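dumping this here before i forget
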Amino acid sequence: MPLIDVHVPALGEAAAEARVLRWTCRVGDHVRAGQTIAEIETEKANIEVDAPADGIIESILVPADSIFRGDVVLARLTPHAFDANAVLAADRRGPTGVEPMVRLPGAPTSQTQRRCKFCNALEMSGRIDCARCGAPL
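structure:
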């Protein structure tokens, strides 16, 4: 699946350079089209950068506090159909991306590994969705 480039919005003739103030998302986060993912600053204004499509942030190419000139690619995302349940599941897992696991007495301990067909992340059996992108396994 091809990646989508996130470009700087048109800054106008007077704005020769800009600076990334902050990112509101991280690599691996699910974003919706139109969602603010970064804020940039020019001499005259602060501008919000919106995601061009639903997807997963694959890379951030211009880090926060970096100064850039012209039309640059700020980030890249992998497009996908947005699944609110996957985002909620990712929020439950917390910052580590792993759901807390409770082992019941007598439960089998062996696990097999599978790869997600969307993001190729390695997953353990017993999961119904990918811990990285939230896609069903």
